[in-house]
Every structure is written in structure tokens, then in C-alpha cells.
Amino acid sequence: MLKKSGIITFLLFVSAMVMAQAPSGIPSGQPEPLELNLTNIIVFIVLPVIIVILYIYWRRKKRK
Q1: CA-to-CA distance for 45 and 50, rounded, in angstroms?
Q2: What is the pLDDT of residues 1-20, one digit of tens each?
Q3: What is the dihedral of CA 21, 23, 26, 28, to 10 degrees?
Q4: Among candidates 9, 6, 26, 25, which has minimal Cα distance to 17?
Q5: Which DSSP helix (H) or strand (E) runs through 10?
Q6: Is the pTM for the entire model greater than 0.70?
């Protein structure tokens, strides 16, 4: 059992390292911070919060 979990853990770490590598042929620039204009606030803050609230409401309603 311990051997199987060790192998699974090793494979998870290796796969995480492989996925985290940046491609060599694509130029990478400095990431810029998000501008806080009205559109970005609505798309990246308000809509996800509304989606989470609606999902929680839907799950509670589904249980009853």
C-alpha cells in the first residue's frame, strides 16, 4: 500500500513539474497587473461572486 501511494505521489510531482515548464519557442514578457476599470471589475470580480452565490443557492434549493 505504501509503495503504491509513493509511486502515485511521485507521478503527481513529476506531472506538475512537466506542466509548469514554460515553452522555449514563445517569448515571455513581464506580466502586467490587472487594470481596475469598470469592465475588468465586473468581469473578474462581480461575475464570479454572483456565479458562486447562485451555485450555493441552487444547491441549497436542490436539497430541499
Answers
A1: 9
A2: 667 788 888 888 887 777 76
A3: 10
A4: 9
A5: helix 2-20
A6: no
DSSP string, 19-58: HHPPPSSS---PPPPPP--HHHHIIIIIHHHHHHHHHHHH
Total residue length of the chain: 64
> CB of 40 within 8 A of CB of 34?
yes
Locus of grid cell 481596475: 36
Cβ-Cβ contacts under 8 Å for 34 (sequence gap 6 or more): 40, 44
Distance CA 22, CA 53 (A): 35
Whether the CA torsion 40, 45, 48, 51 is positive or negative: it is negative
